[in-house]
Amino acid sequence: MENTLRRYDIDWLRVIAIGFLLIYHVAIPFQPWGVFFGFIKSPENLDSIWIPMSMINVWRIPLLFFVSGMGLYFSMKKRNWKMLLSERTRRILLPFIVGILTVVPLQVLIWQHYYNQELKFVFNPAHLWFLGNIFIYVLLLCPLFYFIKRNEEKWRSVLNRVFDNPIKLILIAAPFMLSVVLIKPAAYAMYAMTMHGFILGLLAFLFGFLFVFTGKVFWDTMKKWKWSFLSTALLMYSMRFYFWELEGPKYLMALETVIWIYGIFGLSFSYLNFNNKYLSYLSEAAYPVYIVHWIFIHLGSLWIFNINIPVSLQFIGLAIFTFFGSILAYHYLIRNLNILRPLFGLKLKSKAQMQINPQARISL
Fold first, then answer.
1. pLDDT in tens, 253-301
2. 356: helix, coil or strand?
3. Tens of pLDDT along 19-70?
4. pTM of the model
5. Which DSSP category does 331 fall into?
6. Of 53, 148, 157, 290, whose CB has the highest number of CB atoms within 10 Å?
7. Rounded to 5 degrees, what are φ and ψ at 274?
8. Alpha helix (H) ranges present in the chain?
9. Are 286 and 63 in contact (CB under 8 A)?
């Protein structure tokens, strides 16, 4: 069956989502409110970049939650609940704790230095809040997931009747829409450390698991209707841009989120379900890069914002610096030092595995 096979498109989605996260975070220093979210503010704004950023903003974090729920399904296939919780503790909770004790304080110190503030330790999850949420979702939803797994054929039959029709799938947006109506978030994209972000992530994690659990029926529906989903999502974004200056009614933005996600799933299943050496490398690199990238945004800001060049070139320069700084930190330190690997969510390697043939490495 489809859901018993390795899903390379999901691996690609994880890599692509982390890539969009980096670009999104690089754009924040060029917004007038960037400093209030812990970024070093550029001397000049680049307001135009926020137009495309607002398009991806409604789905970039939800996509990661959906993909995380999918990943849990594959982890459950070969583990009982005790093994799963042990594995998730090592892969999620340990990097989360290490990150808020080391990585986040370091990036805060850089920010404090730039603004001539008192240098002091700050206990704050910052961008790692996502990992804390994921671990809580695992604890909350594992009993339900194992119950579903014990009655696999029954639940798959029920879900197949729901996921075989695009209209029925749109109805899945209802709990997302209801949550924003009840919670009333100040801004839809304020996911970090908010009740809105927690509930949205919980729903996305749940449905991500159910989607991949169902298997072929769901993915065939995504593939068949992908262009309809994408054109509808683009139309909703266009309406949000022209009528509401990018921040429309929250319930419509929740609906737009789900439709974007469906379209992206359809594209990934149609064109990204393949493996190559780049995916093997990037799928492992994505997690450590996510953890350390904010440090390199700050370091790049210290240097680039003092260069007298157009603000658009500053943005490009900061994006390049952040990407290569993060990937090089992974390539030469995290992946090759066994003492660091588990601290960044990677498995330990044997001595034989650590002796990598240089010709087999991806050229940077």
1. 999 999 999 999 999 999 999 999 999 999 999 999 999 999 999 999 9
2. coil
3. 999 999 999 999 999 898 899 999 999 988 988 888 999 999 999 999 999 9
4. 0.91
5. I
6. 290
7. -145, 160
8. 8-27, 50-57, 60-76, 81-88, 94-98, 104-114, 129-150, 152-163, 166-171, 173-183, 195-214, 216-244, 250-271, 277-304, 311-329, 351-354
9. no
